[in-house]
Structures are given as structure tokens and as C-alpha cells.
Amino acid sequence: MDPQHDIDDSIASALRRSYGRLAWWIVRLNRMFEPSRVDEPSRPHLPPRIAVPPRQPVPPRSE
User: Fold this and answer.
1) pTM for the model
2) Distance in angstroms (rounded) separating the CA atoms of residues 33 and 37
């Protein structure tokens, strides 16, 4: 085997491990500082309905 190839493989695996650990810490810290979700406030009463006049019947069209 080529010694340079062995060195490249060991550096690549070391970098992969280091980036894996960094990603693990980032995810862990994000979860730790993430605010908990607040429940939606309950409505004490329904909003008032807008008063709409009743519909008037339309007389049939003359032909």
C-alpha cells in the first residue's frame, strides 16, 4: 500500500469523527436552549356575531 494513501485515510477518518462530534454538540445545544412551546390561549367567550338582516324572497321573473 501507498503510505500517502494510508495517511489520507487516517486524516479523513479523524476529520469525520471530529465533525461528527461537533454536529452532535450543535444538536445537543440547540435542543437545550430551544424554548418550550406555549399553549395557545383559550378563548374565554366566542366573538360576537355580526347582525345580518334576513334575506328577502325575490319575486319570480316575468317572461
Assistant:
1) 0.41
2) 12
